[in-house]
Amino acid sequence: MARKTAHLISHSHWDREWYMPYESHHYLLTELMNSLLDTLARDERYRHFHLDGQTIILEDYLQVHPEKRELLEKYITDGRIAIGPWYVLQDEFLTSSEANVRNLLIGHQDAKRYGTICKIGYFPDSFGNMGQAPQLLKQADIHVAAFGRGVKPTGFDNQVADYESSEYESPYSEMYWEAPDGSKVLGILFANWYSNGNEVPVDPEEAKKFWDKKLSDAEKYASTGELLFMNGCDHQPVQSDLGDALEAARKLYPDVDFVHSDFTQYMEVLQRKVPSHLVTITGELRSQHTDGWGTLVNTASARIYLKQLNQLGQTLLERGAEPLAALAALTGAKAYPHELLTYAWKTLMQNHPHDSICGCSVDEVHREMVGRFDKSRHMTQAIVQESLQAIAGQIDTAHNFSWKADSIPFAVFNTAGRERSGTVSVELIVAKRYFKEGPNPAALAEQMGLMPLDPEKGQLLDDRGQAIAAKVEDLGASFGYELPKDKFRQPYMARKIRLTFEAPAVPALGYRSFAWHPCADDSGQAAPSALKVLENGMANEHVSVTFREDGAYSLTNLKNGHTFHEFGIFESCGDIGNEYVFRQPEGDIALTTRGVPAKITLVENEAYRITYEIVHDWAIPAGADESLESERNAMVPFRRRQAQRSKQMVPLRIKTQISLENSAQGLSVSTSFDNQAKDHRLRVLFPTGLESATHYADSIFEAAQRNNVPAAEWINPSNAQHQHAFISLNDEANGLTIANKGLNEYEVLRDSKNTIAVTLLRAVGELGDWGVFPTPEAQCLGEQTVEYAVFPHCGDLLKSGAYEQAYGFQIPWFHIQTEIQFGSLPTTYAPVSWQGEGLALSAFKLSEHEDLIVRWYNLQHRSTKLDVELHVPASAAYRSDVLERRHDSLALYGGKLSLEAGKAEIVTLALSDSLKNKNSH
């Protein structure tokens, strides 16, 4: 009989914050690390510790004990402490594609400074795993993933049956995991959790009981005699007597080799012994083949305000600071701010651990998160503004002969992956007076406010001299200041106007310039608008919408005449669950606004946009009844609770603004409400009427195709799922895509109309999980505003291009005022142009080696051609990866290159400029 090896890997799964505030966990972390360093020094038998796969632990510890850096470096270099590959252990589904990449990239960069990186894809407690993880890991030279959730490893009651059984996804804790592109890694499931080797007894009698059970449990799942035991758990102190415990085990079980191991050693042995018939699991691991109660997917709707702040922060970094800073650097205007961007990313990612961004911690944790979001955003906005100023300073506005000396030019930037048009609001300074600090400038303010200014006489022109219809608002006089690079701050009073207009055909990753003429001339009339107000709705050349008395609306795709009905109905139901899990009370019937009279008002009718406001004065139950609190305090499991909704009602006024822009192919919607109810969920409904068994949801580097109806094992009445930018459903002729900003939970209802329900609010009062942790702030009382968009289309998500509309909805416009000046840049410009069917752009930045990094991902499950044309100097082009390294050289002729993007492939280019000579490795 072959010998078995028990690999014990010591660790402590370190939730940075969770059921206690961050600093309480921080205090315990210092104790853990001090104990670890002491144990490593005292006992040579304690040979290794796995530092939970996240380098932020080092930062947090050294913040308190900087004097321990040298000792830490020694143990890391000696291989006794394993660090990386991540910066934090993130929630994969609630952080963006690029945030997952930055997490891996920055984790590698941090670990590299200590000389070693643990090359294992470590996902011990992620609430489900992204389908493209194997591809990301393989691109980072990681060939093994270890994870704790997402896969049903065995049959009923832990019975290991024939591996072809359909009752489970893998009969073993070992399996292959394949991404949509075909990348494959060896997957290790913590089938007995990541604490199955925790607190090993030293006493022989206790050790015998312990190991009889533990060895048997591990053998139920293992495909080889290499048995994995994780010696640790959440915030587990170091087991300092482990050496004695292992010696005791060796005496009790002479036929088992007990080794204080590490992942590298374990994987090297395991990979040589795994059987050839391991199951291959594919794509997303979301516990699809379970009863549906343990997926923790409803963390996507816990504290939605956090998700909104995160979406804003990620978008400003990925589609603001990085591309604008890259453009400024490529044009020679300003050096790329590597360190500042890393700081902004790290500050943001400190909110990305699964117990943080999931909103499933105590209130103090999430209060501190708001401050971190603000800190990251403020730094990001500073980078954006500096980059815009640097670029604007080089735009040649003097040679535009349709503009005059008194014209006020400005540039509008589009950092999306495709050319787009859209409504932009720009504030312009039309007069400015500086003043010295000290005296009250009230007189100057009055003087500026009384200046004659007739907006009706002005005119907006593009850089071709074409007049553009714009709404002009006189904002009066206001205070401002400048911070010159070579002198003291310069306060001023300024007279401002606001221009709102449609910016047409702004190139992808570029800008287009416009100018305000204070006095109109004979430049011509603006092009006519396609917008028109209907008797009870509105239309442009793409869509029309009509409203019912209850505020619901019908939306017609004018390309083929198909109409969707009853959109925009709101639904409220009870929720007696917790931050992790939604649970509707037994027998609770959801309330809706169907048939509730609404006040419908036309509030905007301009050439660029029409907006209707719909107000529902509604009433919903004030919360759950009194029994819920007693059930919580008694720790009654949420599935056994009997609480119902209260009989007391509270008002809920829902104010919705539905806008249609001149060139838009769908509707933009903003819904605001003052939530005064507890223990409930609010959703907006879109009954598609489309016949399809599947739909697409924007996920990490893919539009994941998911089944509308869950697997047979699923008994949870709810089938909510994660999304990022959109959810899309189509039949052969028609499709519907719902985009959003930070609304990460949706459900395709199991009704006759394939209704898409998007969660706008989930209000609960407890953390849940293993104790009683009240979270009154998770009720999300007070004012809330959410944004989403509705795009009808012909056919599917990809052929219609609806995915580009949905991605563009999340990306803000950027703009900056400039002057009539000479410069090296044209008035309309983009550094790169590209073509590729079904491709989505995700990154445009510089690497630490100053290569231009451009990344796309193929949403199709077939290969496609990518053509790129550069409008910046480049001497060489390379295939790259998520770690931004150079690989195969690509043919670059006249600034043009072509390559094939494989099915579902994440494609990264690295472009170098020989003129700067910064890129040799």
Relative helix content? 10-25%
Low-confidence stretches: 155-165, 914-921
Mean pLDDT level: 94
The helix/strand class is alpha+beta
Global morphology: globular
Number of helices in the DSSP assignment? 15
The N- to C-terminal Cα distance equals 52 Å
Largest sheet geometry: 9 strands, antiparallel
> Order of strands across the widest beta sheet?
25-26-27-28-37-34-33-30-31
Pfam family, one: Glyco_hydro_38C
Domain Glycoside hydrolase family 38 central: 299-373
InterPro entries: GH38_beta-1 (IPR041509), GH38_C (IPR041147), Glyco_hydro_38_C (IPR011682), Glyco_hydro_38_cen (IPR015341), Glyco_hydro_38_N (IPR000602)
Protein name: Alpha-mannosidase
Features:
single chain; 921 residues; alpha+beta; nine-stranded antiparallel beta sheet; six-stranded antiparallel beta sheet; 32% strand; disordered C terminus; GH38_beta-1; Glyco_hydro_38_C; Glyco_hydro_38_N; Alpha-mannosidase
In words, what does this structure look like?
The protein has about 900 residues and is of the alpha+beta class. Strand 18 and strand 19 form a beta hairpin. Helix 1 packs across helix 2, helix 6 (about 205-220) crosses helix 7 and helix 9 runs antiparallel to helix 10 (about 340-350). It starts with a strand and ends in a 9-residue tail after the last strand. About 50% of the residues are buried. The model is unreliable at about 155-165 and about 915-920 (pLDDT under 50).
